[in-house]
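Q: Structure for this?
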Amino acid sequence: MIGKRLKLSRTAAGLSLRGLQQKIGSLVTAQAIGKYERNESTPGSSVLLALAEALAVPVDYLLSDGELVLEGVDFRKPALTRRKEEARVQALVLGFLERYLTVESVLGLPGERWDRPRDAPFPVRSIADADHAARAVRSHWGLGLDPIPDFVELLEERGIKVLAADLRRIGGLTARVRRPGKDPVPVIVVNESEWGERQRFTLAHELGHLVMHVAPAIDAERAAHRFAGALLMPAESLWAAVGRNRSSVSRGELLELKKLYGVSVQAIAYRCRDLGIFGDRLFRTLFRQFSKAGWRTAPYREPFALPPVRPRRFERLCYRALAEGAVSESKAAELLGVPVHDLKVRMSGRALN
Amino acid sequence: MSAEMKVLVLDGSAYAGLEAASLVERALRLRLKLAVADVLYERELAARGGEALRRLGLRVATLADVGMAVRLHRNHPVLSAGDAFACALASANAWMLVTRNPALEAVAVTHAVPCRGVDWLVAEIARREAARFDLYTMQRPPRVDDTGLRGYALER
């Protein structure tokens, strides 16, 4: 009955059946846990609590029917090669999406379809096609040429779920969550520990993966990078701000551009090179300076670093569901992953972090 | 079955309601048999004075099989795990569920689980406190004042 989720959680924790038995103080045997995973028997509540604690997952996560299936995750990414990492990310995303879809469902929101741009996925047969894809997205979403102030909010308004989570060594990933008989839900996960400007670029990069169909001869990661630069810094806007051709640029000017577009100085340099504003020589000189300043190595802290993004729509929906009486306090607290007492503190506005 | 006979299973909303009115301890001191699901206890009470309540008599009840709770949680997305376990506990032991959550009450009715609201429990607490007062005064040695009436009647 709880088999699917139990097995996924155990794999995510990197535990064998015997290892899990030991971790719950041999409350039940490894054989019994195997039976739970094969849905041949069901544990009692005290064993369930012990399992959830040992696997560091909420009890409600184990209770789910596991109907959601994660697909389209690029598990070729270096940090995701291990099965344990793969399972950990799957568990994270599935748990989040399940709660997100629950609150949308109880509020009767049409959150099932995302606002996919017309003609997407856009074919990318050369790297420059990524620019056209970015332009089409801006046009479909009515963004004009202005900088995008709150990229997370934009994506969430368009029906893409955004999760900031501990992804260890990777910046972000895109996935689709499929439910029986319904359209898949796109989700983008960003590393919660990165700077805001890097996260914004990651979000745009992952959006690129969602809306482009990249030809096998083209490096999909490079195309997604090009898309991200083009989406966050439209050519016309950048030309107006920087000019068409530059032989030198000061650090101060780059930092002002960073404030304007909410991207890293390095992303600006790449975009200016893509558009032919910076030649190779200036580009190489800049990157030598960036390396010397330590901006190209962890923790990648540039001046005027932006605070990490924080997706807020899900939390807002939980508060709304509670205010409208669509869920009880205990359900709202469960959705938000906090005790009821903490929820009350948040609702009272005493903790506004 | 009367409230004296039954164990009363509190869901999260009922517990929070009683706690807000400082009635949990009073209910336990009145020997009302209050229980919460272990799932609720671990999530909400263990770190917030749960042990003291256990010493006063709060029961932390376990389910031998979580099957019904799992089904309730899956079939009724508005129920939390704590809600589902409280209902399953009441059903498995023929106890009475106490809740302030209309969605849970509706599910309990569907599954023929006896269910009451917190208002009823507050009234029960008041009734018991009144009865205890009566008992106390009635047990005092009768005295006769100059009206000839017994002290109990005068004190009332």
